[in-house]
């Protein structure tokens, strides 16, 4: 994503940093900008998050602020290189914010589960039941939309009635983080691109089931 953004004529770079325990950081909630961030390399603690802002000619965007506790996965390089992984996620979020017409629904590898992990994602009972019902249909009666469901998010788009009610929301994270994927989804819905909207819900669900369920509910409410 970063390399592609560098080819855009109105791209003006990206600023941001990894946040460590003990950092002196201030965020202006009114403007959603980082007004101060100081790190002492000799006294810094563990990685806790990262922030990033992509610059686009003639436009300003709020900061993308991500927390390691919400993004970290227990596999891959997250355990050994958390600063690199959370920074790449923040950078990707900032680029989606600045260039939604290009990057909406596009996620960096660091944000996604590996292929093996995707296969191991537990399927909710409601989706398993939907698959069982579809499998019981006569072969001649099956249509593309009646086939086996490829993933829980796909069921959201094709079989909305089998989608479980969204789980209660946890303690709210910074609004700038929670709103990014929702804004991307609404942008795609408004543009009439339901396929990319489904892909976005799928990607988010695999990374964060609670947020994915909320986006799925939003997609179902779309006209």
Outline of this structure?
The protein has ten helices and five strands; from the N terminus they run αβββββααααααααα. The protein has about 220 residues and is of the alpha+beta class. The longest helix has 17 residues, at about 80-100.
Adjacency order of strands in the biggest sheet: 1-4-5
> Which oligomerization state do the chains in this entry correspond to?
single chain
- Unreliable spans are 114-135, 139-163, 171-178
Radius of gyration: 19 Å
Note the gap between the termini: 31 Å
Largest sheet: 3 strands, antiparallel
Could you tell me the number of beta strands?
A: 5
| Structural shape | globular
Topology pattern, helix = H, strand = E: HEEEEEHHHHHHHHH
Figure out the total of helices.
Answer: 10
Helix-strand makeup class: alpha+beta
Helical fraction: 40-55%
> What is the total domain count?
2
Query: Can you give the mean pLDDT?
Result: 74
Percent of residues in β-strands: 15-25%
What does this structure look like?
The protein has 223 residues and is α+β, with helices and mostly antiparallel strands. The chain folds into two domains: 2-111, no CATH class; 115-221, no CATH class. The protein contains ten helices and five strands. The protein has helices at 2-5, 68-71, 82-98, 100-103, 115-120, 125-135, 152-158, 175-190, 194-207, 209-221; strands at residues 11-20, 24-28, 33-38, 47-56, 64-67. It has a three-stranded antiparallel β-sheet. β2 and β3 form a beta hairpin. α7 runs antiparallel to α9 and α8 (175-190) runs antiparallel to α9 (194-207). The longest helix has 17 residues, at 82-98. The radius of gyration is 19 Å and the shape is globular. Residues 114-135, 139-163 and 171-178 have low confidence and may be disordered.
């Amino acid at each position: 994503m970063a390399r592609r953004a560098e080819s855009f004529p109105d791209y003006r770079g990206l600023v941001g940093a990894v946040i460590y325990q003990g950092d002196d950081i201030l965020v202006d909630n009114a403007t959603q900008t980082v007004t101060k961030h100081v790190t002492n390399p000799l006294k810094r603690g563990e990685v806790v998050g990262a922030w990033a802002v992509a610059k686009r000619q003639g436009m300003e965007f709020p900061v993308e602020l991500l927390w390691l506790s919400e993004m970290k996965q227990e596999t891959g390089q997250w355990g050994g290189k958390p600063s690199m992984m959370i920074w790449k996620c923040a950078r990707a979020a900032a680029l989606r914010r600045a260039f939604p017409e290009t990057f909406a629904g596009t996620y960096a590898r660091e944000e996604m589960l590996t292929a093996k992990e995707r296969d191991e994602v537990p399927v909710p009972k409601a989706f398993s039941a939907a698959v069982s019902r579809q499998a019981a249909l006569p072969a001649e009666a099956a249509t593309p939309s009646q086939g086996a469901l490829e993933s829980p998010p796909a069921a959201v788009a094709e079989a909305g009635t089998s989608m479980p009610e969204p789980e209660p929301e946890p303690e709210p994270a910074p609004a700038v983080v929670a709103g990014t994927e929702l804004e991307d989804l609404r942008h795609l819905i408004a543009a009439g691109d339901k396929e990319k909207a489904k892909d976005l819900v799928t990607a988010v669900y695999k990374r964060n089931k609670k947020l994915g369920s909320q986006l799925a509910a939003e997609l179902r409410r779309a006209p």
